[in-house]
Amino acid sequence: MSEPVKWGVLGVAKIATEKVIPAMQRGALCRIDAIASRDAARAQAAAKALGIPRAYGSYEELLADPEIEAIYNPLPNELHASWTEKALAAGKHVLCEKPIGLDAEEAGGIIAARDKSGKLVAEAFMVRHHPQWRRAREIVRSRAIGEVGAIQTLFAYRLLDPENVRNRPPGGGGLYDIGCYAISTARYIFGAEPQRVAAAIDFDPDFRTDRLASAILEFPGGRHLTFSVATQLAGAQRVTIAGTAGRIEVMIPFNAPPDRPTEIVVDSGADLVGGGARREEFAVCDQYTLQGDAFARAVGGEAALEFPLEDAVANMKVIDACFRAAKSERWEKI
Fold first, then answer.
1. 282 Cβ partners below 8 Å, 6+ apart?
2. Domain ranges of the chain
3. Which residues touch 22 (CB under 8 Å, ≥6 apart)?
4. Given this model, what pLDDT does residue 2 score?
5. What 8-state DSSP symbol labels residue 113?
6. What does residue 112 show for φ and ψ, rounded to 5 degrees?
7. pLDDT confidence of 1, banded at 50, 70, 90?
8. Mean pLDDT on 87-105
9. Is the pLDDT of residue 259 over 70?
10. What's the CATH class of domain 127-285+316-333?
11. pLDDT at 9 over 80
């Protein structure tokens, strides 16, 4: 690409101002030219702090900026679909934070808007761009750990602030915020879609959002993902990919630090004390930078969009089924 893609950001969410924007600014193919907030002072403060040239006091003003080519949408979950559609209607490409909607029907509605606009839309699952996940999938596909039959995922944090958007309906709760990662990465590793799910969900009586969700997903061939995600337990992240001839442990699977190497452990299972284990280390990188540049290459026509909108809709179908299964207390088809 001769010129970086010119981006605008909807809102001043913490993930945007502290992680995604700085990471994209370090990329070779992204330029953050504008940011908007419904509070003009907040937009101006964020623009000043991040060195962004233009600040707008409304999202509509940003979408009307003819210089902006692509929009990053980190708004609260319940605003993802509507503002993604508005951005498409304004002729912008969109990278939208996960989940792209509150259910598969809402997410699927964006397809028509995308097709009408002729622009690109993707859900921002940055982890699939990190080399540790690329390598894990490569090992699985090579059958170096045999036939993979099970993936186990734990993702937890403790957040008790009632004003935090993650603790407020309709878009809050663990399944939307982090359960989506467990589902997306299993689909990525298995290279398949799950067929049915059983789930149990505990809701906070005051917040009315799910604070602990556990599920079993059955994939073709009798393969399983089992996961637990929690918003009120001690912080933890771990993924185990288990095969007939070994396993892979992804040590920091989701919030991989951008300032130090990461690693996976490949273990033959020779014993229970690590006698068959070897570690693979990955150089320092920022998965948000990699994600932004990958989307920019697709915008520039240099590469196909690896994870198009249809992938986001497929992930939402699984989340929908998890909620149904917890309510029905039986297996639910996806």
1. 130, 131, 132, 135, 261, 262, 263, 264
2. 5-126+289-305, 127-285+316-333
3. 50
4. 66
5. H
6. -65, -40
7. low
8. 97
9. yes
10. alpha beta
11. yes
Dihedral sign, Cα of residue 198, residue 202, residue 207, residue 208: positive
DSSP 53: S
Per DSSP, what are the bridge partners of residue 201? 213
Write out the DSSP string of 229-247. EESEEEEEEEEEEEETTEE
Strand pairing partners for 237? 155
The pLDDT tens digits for 130-180 are: 999 999 999 999 999 999 999 999 999 999 999 999 999 999 999 999 999
- Tell me how far CA of residue 58 lies from CA of 7, 10, 38, 113, in angstroms: 16, 9, 5, 22
What does the pLDDT look like over 23-36, one tens digit per residue?
A: 999 999 999 999 99
The superfamily (CATH) of domain 5-126+289-305 is NAD(P)-binding Rossmann-like Domain (3.40.50.720)
Q: What is the pTM of this model?
A: 0.96
Taking CA atoms, 292 is separated from 4, 32, 137, in Å, by 11, 11, 21
pLDDT at 188: 98
- Please name the residue ranges forming H helices in the chain: 14-15, 21-25, 40-50, 59-63, 80-89, 104-117, 131-142, 174, 180-190, 287-299, 309-328
Q: Are 123 and 306 in contact (CB under 8 A)?
A: no
Determine how many CB atoms are found less than 10 A away from the CB of residue 3: 9
228: number of Cβ within 10 Å: 19
